[in-house]
Amino acid sequence: MTSQILIVLILTFLINLISTLSYSVRIVGIRTGRIAISFALFNILLLISRTANGFQAPLLAKTVENDIKHGIFDNTIIFRYVIFSCTLATILGGFLIPTFQRILSRAVLNFSTHKSLPKLIIRGFTKNGILYFKDNMAVPARGNITQISTDKEFPWKIFILNTVAVAVLTVGVLSSVYAAYLNPEYRTTASSLSAFINGFATILLSIFIDPHLSVMTDDVMLGKCPEAVFRKYIVYIIIARLLGTIIAQLLFLPGASLIAFIATKI
Predict the structure, then answer these.
(1) Structural domain of 219
(2) How many domains, the chain?
(3) Looking at the whole model, is its pTM more than 0.85?
(4) In the chain, helix, strand, coil percent, each to 5?
């Protein structure tokens, strides 16, 4: 495994870890009563994720280019590993959510008092900050898992749409880059199609899933919805995300073949 692929695996893992942790930000906002500040602080991590995402495709494309130059036109194992790193990151992110909630809640309250991001970051690396992190490490409550049920209140529509959106987002760039193996003459066109594919998945998230969670967040703040119900929905969303990364393994090659075909027709 080359250093480039190792970097891609690390970046992909980081991107999906942060994406999974993002679901807990609404809970932090509810508990602290400061939703805007919660999202503002989390956007710092989101900026890291987006920066990492910008390096992912070029590094993979460089690997494909080198393979094609050496007469290699099939290297699926690398891409399988990248997708698998998405699954591992989602699992780890789910287990880290209770710890992340506590740390972010403390950060929100400190920022509300001092109103200084540099001071907040410095305090996080002090002895007290490190001890606070250590003392507040926790695993998901068993009740959050045992209460899962596919009864009539199960949000099937949101669950399925989130699964599909995550699966498409996971393979969007990967299938587009891999399409270069299948159709080297149109590899630039195929790579450019990733924006269209990811755009479709982003639309699903923006139109159906994010507004639904936003409404539920407001309902919890107004006392119309119990926090326990909202937390259960977050668990469902994380499970849907995990399922989406697994389904991505099945969609990867068909998606690459479809992109390679479309690249010759547009």
Answers:
(1) 3-265
(2) 1
(3) yes
(4) 85, 0, 15
